[in-house]
């Protein structure tokens, strides 16, 4: 499924498989053990993730530069991968370092495999998907709750059989909490009617209820800090342990046009012995309930028709969804124009 980095990036393809020129969450860190490798599809392309013997994660296009065989079927050699088909050895930067069948071959020393910049944070691997493979990655400001020393966070990861935009739109739709999740231990209270507004920030926007706060899923902030993510809070009863409000950092990464990798970091701002108490309660009591809520979202999105967004009748509660779609549509066209210019050079 690997494609040329620029030639096939139409606006429609970008809109369905994900924005480029930004960072995306790829998978949990423990998907790739030291000395291990894993084939993975993200943004409609096939990739090889492998962890070098020194612990560094590398991400390469899953295609040998010799005959196009999948490198993921190859042999892990510590700091490089040897293609199983003819033994071509490729390092983590995508450079051919050896051609065993013909030492000194002119392939050696050339960077012939696309390699993506990667980072690890809060138990997840992130990667930069640039339109121009030769350009340096853009800046990345990590979500505060994931790097704040006074915050304890747990990563919940799943893969849903639904388009990535629907997963993101679901997060920009707070009102569904009062209906779909009404039997949840945290979202049973509050009204089932509301008015919403969009409030701009220097990194994105809030979509929030104007007449209710701290009762249900009452607000969400969409953030663009080199990676797209959302932040939201769900009120917690005292029985859920010490600490402030229960927060969620959410990211939806396209696997392809029809599947999404979803990342939900559940967090609370809590320190000292209270952190230990909350972490214990989460693992022993709360985590199962949270997965139940995620399952409600997954089932709903996976059962929506493929053309569900083509036959809608939207109203005031959907302003956040509309804002997100327009933003991504405009960005997809800008990126397609950029890709076309690069391909023409």
TrEMBL record:
The protein's matches in PROSITE patterns, at most eight in alphabetical order, are given as:
RIESKE
Q: What UniProt keywords are attached to this protein's entry?
A: 2Fe-2S, Iron, Iron-sulfur, Metal-binding, Oxidoreductase
Coiled coil regions in record: none
Q: Which residue ranges does the record assign to the Rieske domain?
A: 23-127
**InterPro entries assigned:** Cholesterol_7-desaturase (IPR050584), Rieske_2Fe-2S (IPR017941), Rieske_2Fe-2S_sf (IPR036922), VanA_C_cat (IPR044043)
Claim: Iron is one of the keywords in the record: yes
Classification via Pfam families? Rieske, VanA_C
- Enumerate the GO terms in the molecular function aspect: 2 iron, 2 sulfur cluster binding; metal ion binding; monooxygenase activity; oxidoreductase activity, acting on paired donors, with incorporation or reduction of molecular oxygen
Q: Which PANTHER family match?
A: 3-KETOSTEROID-9-ALPHA-MONOOXYGENASE, OXYGENASE COMPONENT, IRON-SULFUR DOMAIN CONTAINING PROTEIN
Name by which UniProt lists this protein: Rieske domain-containing protein
* Species for this entry: Nocardia macrotermitis
């Amino acid at each position: 499924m690997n494609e040329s980095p620029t030639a096939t990036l139409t606006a429609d393809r970008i809109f369905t498989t994900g924005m480029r020129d930004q960072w995306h969450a790829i998978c949990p860190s423990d998907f790739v053990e030291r000395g291990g490798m894993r084939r993975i599809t993200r943004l409609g392309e096939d990739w090889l993730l492998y962890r070098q013997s020194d612990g560094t994660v590398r991400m390469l296009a899953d295609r040998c530069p010799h005959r196009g065989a999948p490198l993921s079927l190859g042999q892990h050699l510590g700091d490089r991968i040897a293609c199983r088909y003819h033994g071509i050895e490729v390092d983590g930067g995508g450079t051919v370092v050896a051609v065993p069948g013909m030492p000194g071959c002119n392939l050696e020393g050339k960077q012939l495999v696309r390699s993506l910049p990667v980072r690890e944070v809060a138990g997840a691997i992130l990667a930069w998907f640039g339109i121009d493979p030769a350009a340096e990655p853009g800046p990345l400001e990590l979500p505060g709750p994931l790097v704040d020393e006074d915050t304890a966070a747990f990563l919940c990861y799943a893969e849903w059989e639904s388009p990535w935009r629907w997963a993101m739109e679901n997060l920009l739709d707070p009102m569904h909490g009062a209906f779909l999740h009404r039997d949840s231990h945290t979202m049973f209270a509050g009204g089932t009617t509301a008015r919403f507004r969009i409030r701009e920030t220097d990194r994105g926007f809030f979509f929030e209820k104007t007449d209710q706060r701290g009762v249900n899923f009452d607000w969400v902030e969409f953030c663009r800090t080199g990676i797209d993510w959302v932040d939201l809070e769900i009120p917690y009863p005292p029985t859920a342990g010490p600490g402030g409000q229960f927060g969620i950092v959410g990211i939806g990464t396209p696997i392809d046009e029809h599947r999404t990798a979803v990342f939900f970091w559940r967090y609370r701002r809590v320190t000292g012995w209270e952190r230990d108490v909350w972490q214990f309660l989460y693992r022993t009591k709360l985590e199962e309930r949270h997965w139940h809520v995620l399952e409600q979202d997954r089932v709903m999105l996976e059962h929506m028709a493929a053309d569900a967004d083509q036959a809608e009748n939207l109203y005031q509660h959907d302003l956040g969804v509309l804002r997100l779609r327009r933003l991504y549509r405009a960005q997809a066209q800008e990126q397609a124009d950029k890709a076309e210019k690069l391909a023409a050079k």
